[in-house]
Amino acid sequence: MIGKKMTDEINKQINAEIYSSYLYLSMSAYFMLRNLAGFANWTKIQAQEELTHAMKFYNYLLERGAKVVLTTIEGPKTEWKDEVEVFSEILNHEKKVTALIHNLVNVATEEKDHASNSMLQWFVNEQVEEEANAEKILQELKMIAGNGFGILMIDRELASRVFVDSTQSAANTN
Fold first, then answer.
1. Sequence spans of domains, the chain
2. Do the beta carbons of residue 36 and residue 95 sit within 8 Å?
3. How far apart are CA 5 and CA 107, in angstroms?
4. Which pLDDT value is given to residue 166?
5. pLDDT at residue 4, rounded to an integer
6. Distance between CA atoms of 158 and 38, rounded to whole angstroms?
7. Tell me, which fold does domain 4-165 have in CATH?
8. What's the pLDDT tens digit per position in 122-164?
């Protein structure tokens, strides 16, 4: 059985992950209205990933015999100045999520909850990748300084991203 404090914190994280999904969906809609289908694709896939992260936490609580408590999800921002502002927000948001994950690890350590600590290591590693991807795109956008041809090149690159549910192990993909 998982402790109350860990359960409460993971329930908060489920909410945070679903909010992240909403935020990325909002960004995707923003990009679609600007005819940047590649950027829209990238953020829409990011929204799907965040939802799978929420479900990984959700399933974990249920596997441990804990109650899942879903709460109200705040509506996300819907307008940005440009692509640089969006990816600056993405990077800052991912850093915030990293801090939330680190807090969960700290709680698991304090509670001597080795099972939760083990599960959370997947998220610790995932956040390194999330921040690196956001940083890379942000730096590319800053390099091109709003140049239309550069934006279109990045848009085409981002269009090639496909959704892969990284929360599933190879043995569970049947």
1. 4-165
2. no
3. 8
4. 86
5. 98
6. 5
7. Ferritin (1.20.1260)
8. 999 999 999 999 999 999 999 999 899 999 999 999 999 999 9
Residue 159 has, within 13 A of its CA and on its CB side, a CA count of 12
* Range list of H helices, 111-161: 114-144, 148-159
**Which strand (E) or helix (H) includes residue 16?**
helix 4-33
Q: What is the pTM of this model?
A: 0.92
Q: Contacts for 62-67 with beta carbons within 8 Å, 24 or more apart?
A: 64/1, 64/2, 64/7, 64/115, 64/116, 65/1, 65/2, 66/1, 66/2, 66/7, 66/10, 67/7
Nearest residue to 31 (alpha-carbon basis) of 115, 173, 154 = 154
User: Are 36 and 151 in contact, with CB atoms under 8 Å apart?
Assistant: yes
